[in-house]
Amino acid sequence: MNTRLITATVVLGLGIAMLLYGFGLHVTPVYSKDNDKGLATAESALIKEVSIGGVERKPDGTLHKTYTGAPPKACPT
Amino acid sequence: MVKKSKFQQFILKLLPHRLWVQVAFLIVWLDPLAMRMHNMCSPVFHCYACPLATFACPIGVIAQFSALHMIPFIAIGLLLVVAGTFGTIICGWVCPFGLLQDLAAKVPTPRVKIPRVLGYMRYVVLFGAVILVPYFFGERHALFICKICPAGGLEKAVPDMVTAAAQGNEIVWPNAIKLSIIGAFLVAIFVTIRPWCRVLCPLGVIFGFFNKFSLFSMKLSDHDCTKCGRCRTLCEYGVEPDKTPNGDNCLRCLECTKCGPGALQAGTAFDKTTEDSKDAKSQD
Lengths: 77, 284
Prior knowledge:
The complex is a heterodimer of chains A (77) and B (284).
Chain A: H1 3-24, E1 27-31, E2 39-42, H2 43-50, E3 55-57, E4 63-65
Parallel strand pairs in A: 1-4
Antiparallel strand pairs in A: 1-2, 3-4
Chain B: H1 6-14, H2 18-29, E1 37-41, E2 55-56, H3 58-67, H4 73-86, H5 89-94, H6 96-104, H7 121-137, H8 145-148, H9 150-166, H10 176-191, H11 195-200, H12 202-209, E3 216-220, H13 230-234, E4 264-268, H14 278-283
Parallel strand pairs in B: 1-2
Antiparallel strand pairs in B: 3-4
């Protein structure tokens, strides 16, 4: 039995499942000053936001935009 | 002499051109079409704050999501797919930060050997600065990975400083810790080979962990290995390929496959003769 092939297939399957879930189904509400009900944000859009430091977590566990208007050009860190 | 597989023959033809393969991939990462696709991660170490970054850095995304108390399914999924297929081939042939260090290593300077045990620091960086510190202290903590990452310093902070100086504007200096890290990194890449990858890279340690399971693999024929030690001489990164051909500290530059007897070969999990040697298996 080729254990490497089996293990690699399991890892690849898990990776593909996570990618599909991340791109297709995973949404999170993000609050802003303009939107106090929370805007359902896809994970891919959230990746873009965190890459510019555009989202932060408040003590109550909700996610909030750090800016209003035009987004920052780059991550502040 | 072992008969070399067609795949190994292809690798041997490609090996002299590894630097050019790295340069070709560099063009992909440097966003030549200005697409700025930062809603997707790349599988390499390249800061998303850099003005020339096609994709988001997976380590930065994992750390930022950890600070948000969220699971980054896309970043982890991508890393699983890439690591499960290639392992550290990405480090040796694809990563732009690896290319930078390889180019610096071309400068003839006295070299310092890195003790192999320091490779475990990569796990400390991964679990500490990328996952735990962001999760418990948020992205503002001084040990948050992006605040101490030399890639961010070199690809964003330094260009910003140079641009400001050239335009006669006030220079915004990074904090002392980041400046020290940039300085230490610039010294280290000239006195040792791939210091970041071998000692601190949190992405490399993920790929390295999957070397044991990836579809691409190294094969060592124990029967044909003459224990001449040439593979260790060929390896610039201090790995012992005859002991751990699929070890987590191997960057898979594949130079060791040039060994005379041909006992070490690159292969895949689909090969019919997939069995690594008993010694290699037990020590991996």
